[in-house]
Specification:
By secondary structure, this protein is α+β, with helices and mostly antiparallel strands. It contains 7 helices and 12 strands.
Length: 291
């Protein structure tokens, strides 16, 4: 194939079916509807100005042969320094892999943006490290929150996409809970006295033995200390939903929680000026493509 006939451009609405087909071929076990649903969510969400809505497409002779999905979000302020981009699903047809760097170089060209990769395959770790990515999450902690003591008087309130009055929470956090409930996440507010602490969780299954075990994964809280404080109340809420375990991004055992730390499981990387914090996976592939 003549290199002059290979080009990289932004994905548009008209490319959705072709992108879903490409990703279905590239990710065995993912049905086309999985990709269509996630792409539809990308189409409907608000994104920062001048950012690509979906990501980039690699074309050869006018035919799509590669794709890289990008999920942009604003983190504090309104300038480029607050931009975060989840570098998500990547696939290039085998005969065009030599041109794959066209996708990655274009996708990571803005030095003011902080890029994150939250689901890198183990075999890609050396590749993304060579691209300048650094690991910010070393593993995951699988907690049993039901074993934690519940603080007296604490109650847990579920927030849905239709919930309007969420007392004691800033408007930005209330909207975060509502928007992620619309994605299929479990949005909760733990209340004690006049204080409210927000949590967003997503259903997961832990592969252990022959049968997967239902669990939940932490998507968002203000601080892991809040999770430790509310663990008992959250555990009682989760067990009623059939999930005893809670997966938390961590760099070691979490003091105050009962469970086990799994090193090198769920590792996450970043590249850019603002290292991400643990306990914030909002507006990433985990929620847009996950539930």
């Amino acid at each position: 194939m003549d290199a002059r006939k290979v080009r990289c451009r932004e994905i548009t609405d008209a490319d959705i079916e072709a992108v879903a087909d490409l990703l279905t071929r590239g990710f065995v076990g993912r049905a086309p509807d999985y990709w269509r649903r996630g792409l539809r969510r990308q189409a409907e969400r608000d994104i920062p100005a001048d950012c690509p809505r979906y990501g980039y497409l690699l074309e050869a002779g006018g035919e799509p042969v590669g794709v890289l999905l990008l999920l942009y979000a604003q983190r504090g302020g309104s300038d480029a320094a607050g931009l975060r981009c989840n570098v998500s699903s990547w696939y290039v047809e085998p005969q065009f892999r030599n041109y794959a760097t066209m996708l990655t170089s274009l996708a990571q060209k803005n030095k003011a943006v902080t890029y994150i990769n939250i689901s890198p395959a183990v075999n890609t770790w050396p590749i993304i490290e060579a691209q300048g990515f650094r690991r910010y999450c070393q593993g995951m902690f699988v907690a049993l929150p039901l074993l934690s003591r519940a603080e007296p008087g604490m109650r847990v309130e579920r927030v849905t996409a239709a919930t309007r009055d969420i007392a004691d929470l800033p408007d930005s956090e209330a909207e975060l809970l509502r928007s992620h409930a619309a994605y299929g996440c479990l949005s909760l507010a733990c209340r004690v006295g006049g204080e409210a602490m927000p949590f967003i969780l997503v259903p997961k299954r832990i592969k252990h033995g022959r049968y997967p075990t239902p669990a939940m994964q932490l998507v968002y809280c203000r601080d892991v200390a809040d999770l430790v404080r509310c663990a008992g109340a959250l555990g009682r809420t989760l067990i009623r939903r059939g999930a005893a375990m809670l997966i938390v991004d961590a760099n070691g055992p979490v003091a105050g929680l009962r469970g086990v730390y799994l090193a090198s499981r769920g590792c996450k990387y970043f590249k850019g000026p603002n290292p991400p914090r643990l306990a914030d996976l909002t507006e990433t592939e985990l929620v847009l493509y996950g539930p």
